[in-house]
Automatic annotation (TrEMBL), chain A:
UniProt name for this protein: Cytochrome c-type protein
Alphabetical list of InterPro entries matching this protein: Cytochrome_c-type_ET, Multihaem_cyt_sf, NapC/NirT/NrfH, NapC/NirT_cyt_c_N, NapC/NirT_cytc_sf
Sorted UniProt keywords: Cell membrane, Electron transport, Heme, Iron, Membrane, Metal-binding, Transmembrane, Transmembrane helix, Transport
Family the entry assigns: Belongs to the NapC/NirT/NrfH family.
Electron transport among keywords: yes
Domain of life: Bacteria
Ranges that cross the membrane: 26-48
Compartments it resides in: Cell membrane
Main location: membrane
SUPFAM superfamilies linked: Multiheme cytochromes
Membrane topology: Single-pass membrane protein
Ranges for domain NapC/NirT cytochrome c N-terminal: 27-198
From TrEMBL, chain B:
Source organism, top-level taxon: Bacteria
Protein name from the UniProt record: Periplasmic nitrate reductase, electron transfer subunit
Keyword check for Transport: yes
Subunit composition and interactions: Component of the periplasmic nitrate reductase NapAB complex composed of NapA and NapB.
Membership in a protein family: Belongs to the NapB family.
Subcellular location: Periplasm
Chief place of localization: periplasm
Keywords carried by this UniProt record: Electron transport, Heme, Iron, Metal-binding, Periplasm, Signal, Transport
Gene3D superfamilies assigned: Flavocytochrome C3, Chain A (1.10.1130.10)
Amino acid sequence: MAAGIARAWGWFRGNSLIRTALKPPVYLSLAFLTLGGFVAGVAFWGAFNTALEATNTEQFCVSCHEMEANVFEELKGTIHFTNRSGVRATCPDCHVPHNWTDKIARKMQASKEVWGHIFGSIDTREKFLSMRKHLAEREWERMKANDSLECRNCHSSESMDLTKQNPRAASAHERFLFTSEKTCIDCHKGIAHRLPNMSGVPGWQ
Amino acid sequence: MRRGIFACLVGIVPFLAAGAIFAQDAPRLRGPEPFTKETPAPPMQRQVTNDVRVRRNYPDQPPVIPHSIEGYAVDLNANKCMSCHARKFTQESQAPMISITHYQDRVGNTLGGLAPRRYVCVACHVPQTDAKPLVENIFTDMDALAEPERQPQRGRH
């Protein structure tokens, strides 16, 4: 064991690239390296964030026909697309967390979706419909696990005025939402897209 | 001969006049404009969503829906109505259970669940709007005919 570590350390110190990296610079000044490093860091971070935000728009999502022809088309008829006050929830508002760490985690998961696009796992309506239950269940699970965080980014229970709701909605929210017995997605499934076959899903029959 | 033709012409005058008068009285669902002119569609009427159960006009009338059903799925995959009105969910939802007739097939055999012929709720149960009726409703409640002196005035038709 100890011999193994010593050998690895020896290789590490002996590697010419690493030796160069650990030596003090010969030609470049300390000011250039620190300030230049800082500027390069700013530029890199700016570019990274811009690219990240560019992939976080409705326009980017519907640039794949899988999204445009299926889920986006279904969203169009719902209240999250057009409504009396003119506020629209776009794809990332519900499907990407706003918090940075969670957002990066979700973006990494989304690489699977790029794979699916390249290999055409849902490139026809029939394939999409046969996958729909699986896709919906993944999303329900995600939203249940984070206590419907994306819903609550806009619909917070603190700013919900029950007196403005009809009695049926008010009593349901009082009994299930405010007691944390249920979370938004438990009852509000299929509000933005059509539902898969709901047999076996709790609360449906 | 001439007199005969004249008599015929005079004879049809009342019918033509009656036709004209009745045509004006007939309800015009498309408004006063003639059919050759395209008119903008009237605005959608607001639904009654006050959650107050509406009295039935006769005992076997399908009860009307006093809440919004916008976006509710009733298709091959899902039936949103049943998430509250099915027997097993009524305690949670405090909604009225669907009628026991809905658990029977057409010859009266009791089934384990909602009868397929009753699946499409909105075929019989519909939400109401507060639109002004185009034609006056002269429906009279059976009770009002039987015991007119004991009937309170109805609020909403």
